[in-house]
Design goal:
The structure is a single chain. By secondary structure, the chain is an alpha/beta fold. The protein is about 55% helix and about 10% strand. It has 17 helices and ten strands.
């Protein structure tokens, strides 16, 4: 049997159940002649066994049979094969019998004695009703799927609009760092890495550390063409300002994502420009801050040049770790300013040649907090304040001012703690010579995991 397109279709399967063998055989022959695939049995229990091992579309059963009546068989058939339809044959039909049968899910009933045409007509009618019901169920299922897809599309559209709204709000807020904007992109697209580039230079990035040449090449291609692009599986890029934003995730990006990342790229262009303006402001303010640093070092004759040396060491270390340009700049700025709070420490304590008393050391220990307070009015240094406040915390929690431990310590502050200690150990003092480079590195290794971040110590070196 074939369908209208020429494909093979499974023939309709019918089970005939009648305790009179001749009737069962007769019905089977009539229906087989109509092209149906027919089996027959003469006992209800045999019918149950067949239903447990074979699939049928329609069952014709006698109403009254010795071991299992027709109605009981129909109930059992519906339990075993919920999709099978039933047609009752009876010589004892009544209105009550018909109503009861129809309520039990019986499609129709044949009243004995019946002719061949009656059988053909009843079976054809039952199968047509079955097909109409199945078609209605298919249409209902298709409609449900369509509604589910439309609901999913609507939810995605709402999520996309919410993302663009949040990104625009972030960019509009004063002093929002580029990292926050890239983090919003990473969250929405579920990305493991997002980078913002200009030329061959990474302006900012979030997510996985290390190089990603494939993603960088896609970003450069997008910037050159001025178009959003899909790259290797899980890679996407869009123009942004004078460069591009590119992202990578584990799953494939879709064509619809191109439109969204293009809008995000245009918004990021504004964020990059805002960042440039803030950078110009920073340079202006840093001139003022440099004067403050000079004032601090003028008070502390033992530490002249210390902030400059620490800043150079911190920058070199951050670049060796392949941090983004933004992170390198942040760490370098924090290093320059880390001791600015000493401007609030009396000179006689700063310049005392001998051992400090406990009270004097408590005054010295206040300089990270004083430094943070000095920088607090300067919004453009908001990300620098935690570095200044926490550069004397210890990995084991025994530092100051807040006793932070392990991962609680900002990574930039943990990095600064290492280079600050190294410069302090290797610098000459009026009361002692600076330690050799190798000895200072040994002390850092000995204090890894107690005073300093062990991972960063293992990566620290001085050329």
């Amino acid at each position: 049997m074939t369908d209208l397109l020429g494909g093979m279709v499974r023939p309709v399967r019918i089970l005939v159940v009648d305790d009179e063998l001749q009737i069962a055989q007769l019905l089977s022959g009539v229906l087989q002649a109509e092209g149906y695939d027919v089996d027959y049995v003469t006992d209800g229990t045999d019918a149950v066994e067949r239903l447990g091992s074979e699939n049928y579309d329609l069952m014709l059963t006698d109403l009254r049979m010795p071991q299992m009546g027709g109605m009981e068989l129909i109930e059992e058939a519906r339990r075993i094969q919920p999709g099978v339809d039933s047609l009752i044959m009876t010589a004892f039909a009544s209105t009550d019998t018909a109503v009861s049968a129809l309520r039990s899910g019986v499609t129709d009933y044949l009243r004995k004695p019946f002719g061949v045409d009656d059988v053909r007509s009843a079976v054809s009618k039952a199968l047509q009703s079955r097909e109409e019901r199945q078609e209605a169920e298919r249409e209902k299922s298709t409609l449900s799927e369509r509604l589910a897809h439309q609901e999913q599309d609507l939810q995605q559209s709402v999520a996309d609009l919410s993302f663009l709204h949040d990104l625009t709000r972030l960019i509009a807020e004063p002093n929002t760092p580029l990292r926050a904007c890239l983090s919003a992109i990473a969250r929405h697209f579920d990305c493991e890495r997002v980078v913002l580039i200009e030329g061959d230079r990474v302006i900012e990035r979030v997510g996985a550390e290390g190089d990603d040449p494939e993603l960088m090449e896609l970003a450069r291609a997008s910037a050159r063409a001025g178009l959003s692009r899909l790259g290797a599986p899980g890679c996407i890029a869009a123009p942004a300002a004078h460069g591009a934003v590119a992202a990578r995730r584990k799953s494939w990006f879709l064509r619809n994502d191109l439109r969204l990342i293009a809008i995000a790229g245009r918004d990021l262009a504004m964020a990059v420009e805002n960042d440039r303006l803030r950078a110009e402001q920073r340079q202006s303010y840093l001139g003022i801050v440099a004067t403050l640093i000079e004032a601090v070092e003028a008070k502390d004759r033992f530490n002249r040049g210390h902030s400059r040396r620490v800043a150079e060491l911190a920058r070199a270390f951050a670049e060796r770790l392949e941090l983004s340009d933004r992170e390198v700049e942040l760490i370098e700025t924090g290093a320059k300013l880390h001791d600015i709070g000493k401007i609030g420490v009396p000179e006689e304590i700063l310049n005392k040649p001998g051992r400090l008393t406990d009270d004097e050391f408590d005054v010295i220990k206040s300089h990270p907090v004083i430094g943070e307070q000095i920088l607090r009015p300067l919004d453009f240094l908001a990300e620098t304040r935690p570095i200044v406040r926490h550069h004397h915390e210890r990995w084991d929690g025994g530092g100051y001012p807040d006793g932070l431990a392990t991962e609680q310590i900002p990574r930039a502050a943990a990095l600064l703690s290492i280079v600050d200690s190294y410069d302090a150990m290797t610098s000459n003092r009026p009361y002692r010579e600076g330690l050799p480079k190798q000895r200072a590195l040994e002390i850092l290794e000995q204090g890894a995991g107690t005073q300093w971040d062990p991972e960063l110590v293992s990566l620290f070196d001085v050329a």
